[in-house]
Predict the 3D structure of the following.
Amino acid sequence: MNPIFRKVTLLLCGLLLTTGLFAKTPTFHYVLISTDKGQCLLKLYNETPKHRDNFVKLVKEHYFDSLLFHRVIHNFMVQGGDPDSRHAAEKQALGNGGPDYTVPAEIQEGLIHKKGTIGAARDDNPAKQSSASQFYFVQGRVFTPAALDSLEQFRLKGKKLTTAQREAYTTIGGTPHLDGNYTVFGELLNGVEVVDKIAEVKTDERDRPLQDVRMSMHLLTRREALNLEREAAGLKPQTGVFTKFFDLFSPTYY
């Protein structure tokens, strides 16, 4: 083999190997949500891949940018994602807009409506399929053990909550009666107080805020997500020149 050709081949192999080492894939997808009441960071669950992938797709398309939180109920939830809200007039009824498809239900026992989770809104379809774009952030409230006992007896018609549910709803809080009926597909890593701020606004008879609260969303890039996960593990983010160079050969997203 020609010595020069051999050196070039080894160099390319080394470059590909190093690029492969730098081109790691984050464990989760993350979305930075900016609102008129502050910012929050959302982690999407891998256990609900259909909802995760659909939400990622819409965020990439800037679908949610400038939409309203059009339905707000204190101590319950704040809902948005209706495209009709982008240019909605005052007092206009909202809540029926969205893409012309639904997302199959991915309801799982371990994914519950604790405070700060995101759930998919839906109509009363028997398959519990989700709206493709409308979602809600859970606020809820903290329950006493006795209140959960009462909930089991009357609202849940005797169905028992799990130990994990009881732990979450007596400490973090949430909306336990929604469990098993709607798909929960992510949770806020920070900015839960933003939900509280939105939930405090005054609303009309349709639960629409009297003063518009808008949103925009940014999907974290592969590098942003990797560095977020490194920091969560107690490691320094990778921001050096070599990282930036090899990122040129890797996809922006994942």
Remarks:
- Strands lie at 29-35, 38-44, 69-73, 77-80, 102-103, 117-120, 130-131, 135-138, 184-190, 215-219.
- The CA atoms of residues 124 and 236 lie 47 Å apart.
- The chain has one domain: 24-86+97-220.
- Residues 11-19 have pLDDT under 50 and may be disordered.
